[in-house]
Amino acid sequence: MKIILTFTLLMIPGVVSSISVTGYSGGGVTITCKYDEGYTAYEKYFCKGQWSYCTDQIKTDEKDKWVHSGRFSLYDDTRSAVFNVTIRHLREQDSDTYWCGTERVGYDFHTEVNLKVIRDQPIRSVRGYSGGNVIINFKYEKQEASHLINVCKTGGQCFTVINTNRAAGWEQDGRFSVQDDRSAGLLRVFIRDLNENDSGEYQITVKVSEEYSFFSEFNLIIRDDDCCVKSISLSAAAGGSVNISCKYPQSHISDVKFLCWRSGADLCAEETSVKESRRWSPEGKIQLYDDREEQLLTGSISHVTEQDSEYWCGVQSDQGHKSFITRVLVNVTDFPETTSSSSSSSSSSSSVKSQHLRMCIK
Predict the structure, then answer these.
(1) What is the DSSP letter of 183?
(2) Model's pTM, two decimal places?
(3) What digits encode the pLDDT tens for the residues 164-178?
(4) What would you report as the CA-atom Rg of the chain, rounded to the nearest whole angstrom?
C-alpha cells in the first residue's frame, strides 16, 4: 500500500528524502535502503514511477536471504535494519524515479531513488594467455570516484583497493593489481602470470557511498595457444640495438599490437603500438611492424641501456583491454659496441625494415 500525506513525509522516522544513483548500461547497481528498527517484520519493496502509482519491481517478506525477480534482487538485512536492492544488466531506459518502501497499514515508509543510467560499452569478455598478463579497463564518471573498489572472481578470491588520494598509483595483492586514476575516471585491473584456472566470471564493484555502489561483470577466458612462445631471451650491447620477433594468435589479426617496456612497478613505463598491417610505426626508440599474413610482430629497440631488460609483446582490443602474450628479456652487456658491431647492428635493423618494405611494394 502506498498512501501517504505529502506534508508528513519529513516527520516519519527513517525516511530519507532522496538518493541519486548513477549506473552504466550493461552493468549494475546495488542500492541500500534504511528503515526504522521497529519495522523489520514488515514487507519490503522496490517500485518504479511516481509515488502515487509506482509499479513494484520486486516485493518480499523474506528476511535475511536474497530474493530474485528478473533483473532485480532484494535482501532484507534485519540485523542492520536496511534492505539492499540490486539491478543487473542496466539499460538506458531504466533511468527513472524509484522508491524503496516498507509497507504498513495507513502509510508506507519510503525513500526516493533517482536512477540515471549512462550509455557505456559493457565489458563482455576478455582474452588472456597462459604465462602472460592482462589489463582490463573500466571507465566511470569522475564525480563517482570512490575510496573503495572490489575485484572479485565468482566463487573465488576478492581484492580490495582503498584509494585515499587522486594519484594514479598501483595497489598490488599477489598477482592482482588495481590502478584507480580518479582524475581520468579510469580503473585498470592487472592480472599477471595467468593460468587456465583464472578463467571465469569476475565483478568490479565501485562503492560510491553508504547508499549505493555500481558494478561491471565480465568473463575472463585464458587459453594456452601453441602459436606463441611465452618468453624470449635476447642479448644487446649498451648503446646498440636489438631486434625482436613475436607471434600472436590468429584471433587477434585485426587488433592493435604493442611492445611495452616494464620498469619496476610500472607495467608500461613506455609503449609503442602499430595499428596497420605491413606499415612501420613512427620513428623512435621502438619501431614496430605488423605482418598480419604471418601473424608476426617484429621490430627494433635502439639505444639500449641497462634499464631495457624486460619488454612484453601484446595485443589491445577495441575496448582498450591489453593482453601481454610474450615476455622479452634483454641481457644488456656493459661494453659499448665497436664501430663495426654498431654498423652490423644498424645494418641488421635496416635489413629487417627493408625486407618488409619490399614485401609491401610487391
Answers:
(1) T
(2) 0.77
(3) 555 567 777 788 888
(4) 27
